What we know:
alpha/beta, 3 domains
Amino acid sequence: MEFTGIIAEWNPFHKGHEKLIKFAKERHPDRPVAAVMSSAVVERGEPAVFSAAARAKMALSAGCDAVFALPARTSLSSAGAFAEGGVLALASFSGMASVCFGAECGDAEALEKAAVLLENEEPARADKIREGLSEGLSYPAARAAAFPEAAELLEQPNNTLGIEYIRALKRHSLEMEPLVCQRDESLESSRFIRGFMALGNPKYVRAQLPEASYGAFRKAFKEEGVLLKDDFSFPLFSSLWDALYPEELAGYEGISESLANRLFALRGDCAAFTELAEGVKNKSLTMTHVNRALMAAALRLKKKKDGHVPPFLTLVGYKNGSKEAVSELMSGAKLPVIARPFSDIEKLDPKTRAAFIEDARILRLTASVRANKMKSPVKDPLLEGVVRI
């Protein structure tokens, strides 16, 4: 059996995501859709607003057949690393024939040309990027200057991710077909929706959410609340104040020596995650990079070579009607798939087991932060079980 894959954050799940699932099924009606999704944190350096289980319920209600969670390390990577990690996760399933994604540009050929251009970076262009960085440009700005023919495409975030998906496919010589669904500009972005969610009333975003998944959204909104970056202020400052010297902070993912020095100097002058992020940002770093670095410090994620490549996946949920297809998908998986954490962990090799324990720690920390915000008891996410719709 063949499958279509989606690499997702669904932060939160909205009508644009529903459209993407429908598009995938229209292109290949005989293929179930399986997604690999960010778990506790997302690529922009923010916590996921809802738990993985809640977001999976929304996606399954709207037509997705199965949802698997990526480890936090993969989820909290740069756009290129996140894309590569997601593509490798999908490729670990036998029968994964296509990867479907949304982009502002619906021209698959244009995205592929840009991907080839960036993947086969010429020395002169690499020099141009280094020159831009030395002049204080952020990496995205320096890259756009080095690749003017792709600059317009790279200005849009979904285009950028789409290009990175195609680059990863080519880099690893994968045969999955890229399916490009043009983003509907009449639909609001996840960022817009999160902004209104933070106001505390789901009615503000009702029109942007699928009817099929709205019940799951309202339940999560009521029971889980909405996690924001500032909810991680205590874990962040606890980590920063544990450091006796700035170089200790440079051991966390995304934190350079210069950023470590600024964090060390300002840790006593700021009271919240976002305040500190604004304080340490400079013109050579995007706010997304700063947020990712601070979240890595809050989660105590040490630097690790190829840390974005997922060593395992976690089954979050599936549709009851797709049980046989999901069983077939998992039976040929090249990566371990965790469905029953406390028994499956015993089957893992030492390296993968250590990675899973690290991820479990992050899931539990996030659950603790959420419970503290909601003034409720902590629920162990490892005991939640697999979602079935």
